[in-house]
Amino acid sequence: ADLIGLCILCSRPAQHKLASRLCAGMTALQFLLLAQGASALHVLRLPTAHLRSAAAAMGEIHRVPAPAPVSDSASLAGDMTGVTYYEDKLCVEEEECELPEEGEFTVAILGDLHLDPRKMEDYETGRGHFLPIIEDAQRRGVATALVSLGDLGESKSVDPENTQELFAGTTACHELAAGYLSSFGCPYEVIGGNHDLEGIDEFSTDEANLEAFCRIHHKPTMQFCRQIADRTLLVGLGSTVFRTAKYTSHEVTVDDEQLAWFERLVSEHPSEEGWKVFVFTHAPPIGSGLRVLQENHVVNGCCWLNHSGGKNGDPRTTTKFIELVRRHRCIKAWFSGHFHLGQDYQDSITFPTIPREEGPYPNRGSCVFAQTSVMRAGTSRDTRQQSRLLRGNKDGFEICTVNHAAGGTVRLDATITYTDSNHEVGVYAHDHAELDHDSFMKVYSPSEGDECYVGYDGDGDGVSIDPTDGCQVDEETVAWWHMSDGRVLGVYDGRLIEYEPSTLAPLGLVVGYDELQGKKVVVVGSGVPDECVASTASVSQAVGMEGADCAEFEGEEQAVLLVDEETGGITVVQPNEDGSYWRKIVRNKMVRMKEKRRVQAGRAYAEAAFDGSPDAFEGRVVSSWGPYTSIVGTAVKTGVAGLTTQAENVAKAEQRWQSLGSEEQGRAWAATGSQLADAFNKVDADGNGSISHAELAAAIKVVDPASTAEEVATMVAVADEDEDGEVTLSEFVMLMLYQRGPALAK
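Structure (tokenized):
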């Protein structure tokens, strides 16, 4: 039967006299009685025609229009804590309440929980903030649900005195989470985050860990689909890869099976038929426009879903999500967590459209993207303790913040009104805080035609470009450009960053500030022209597809150079084997743990074989890596200057330092501190009180022109005692007095 509403009967019948009389007057009707949670709520679903005729005959319902989303200048009617939101909106008097309209629903959304059984106070408080909201909705017949965005357990030992086993991903973790999520008095759904299969001591494979996750949370699969209201779906996709991740284990990886399932689902529920889909994932998809990110997520390649291409390293799976959003207008909102940052910033919610004066149409389909914070203070990266609340009906929906640090108050963040099946209007409901913290990135997002774009000079060779306009890079430098192969690079916040061509969202770090500061960035041609040159390459004008159409071609080769005009040094930024530039720095956690154990074994051997303390071998037990980076045609040497050669050539380094000066010179330097200072200042060209590796290397080459680049790098590494990239006056004094590397003088 066509069902329009819910009559609620509970242990407090005085609050439900109307519902009781309606149901008592319909003894001839067949109805469905469902048990609903520990509060003994019972839900009566009644056929539309019978319910309307009976209600009209009794004359007991005052038809009050259902609440439409409010304007940007309005505020929520009713209790701003959210406790009596529906009661105040749907009732004229306590005993005369309208039943909810079709499509009305409320969803509580929890960000990264990171439950710790020793620290449950904030979770109990947070649940206390949600329970009255959920109960209020249920009393008025509004459909309710709870969604957890994953990362359920603390990624460390919660019993450090007895075990070093990580809590996240274990059976105990998921049982604790299942009990907690079940205690909200409404159905819950959960999807896996990047820590939820981290039970590496208990489970040997991702498959075994995933089976336990699904079994404990009563899920047939990682993904879920729940119909919350008429033609309204809640859909979740979870991470299923940890141990076998191609790069960092903390990339949120949605496997191919889930992705195919999701594509079928949105294809079979078109917006033209009135379907609305609300999506939940741990991390957001690239192209979402969310720009308040943690720096470590950008550097480590785990900001976005399938950031580095997912399980198989296929970049097409990175952009697949935003392509589906653009193609299927039934996707109305997408909620994610992962960043542990608050909901007070404008960049924590993005709308499908923006005012034309603020930039080009971002092509995010019909979807609003919303970032979700955390509940426990100890897991917050900016002191915020917040969750999301989603309230919707047939006309649109509201996104709210439940502030756990302020007694559970509810704030309206944004209102989205449907104008037709494919379009909507979004309005922010409050002013926004500014994010100011060194560990976070409010990432500059390029847009085609903005003032920071650097094009190729039509009178030039078509492949050379000076993106920094002849200036040294500093924290204020902003520029971006297309390479001839369609890839996009940019300078922002003192870093060289690669952007994804079709969304212009940051992919990752190419060169950090420590290496880039004080240098120019120059692009020059390095190969024979091909069919695709950056200055003449056709550039798509399709909205949101502002990448060069020649991205599939290799194009004319180019070299990205970092130029140090003071020393004349040039660093060539080599791309990865797949042609990308951003550095996949962090690798699979299982691989890194094995490598760490091997290094520890090497240290243990050194301590036993050479009879020394652990500190004596710091920096002397190093790793070699493969594949080795070299341009030689035959692999003869495998040392990496400054790393493995430091261990291999430590004796040579000592000899080199001893050969740099005679004993007579050594005695002369030792005789006076002023002479040492003068010598230091002569090498310290910029007068900043320390000698850079480049300056020291140049000095070594002047003194000993026969030194090879490998030998120079080794000596520089040995001289830099604290490994901060600079040689100070004290390190220089130690070097010149004793004519040996400080690391050897200990």
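The first strand starts at residue 3 and ends at 9. The two ends are 85 Å apart (CA to CA).
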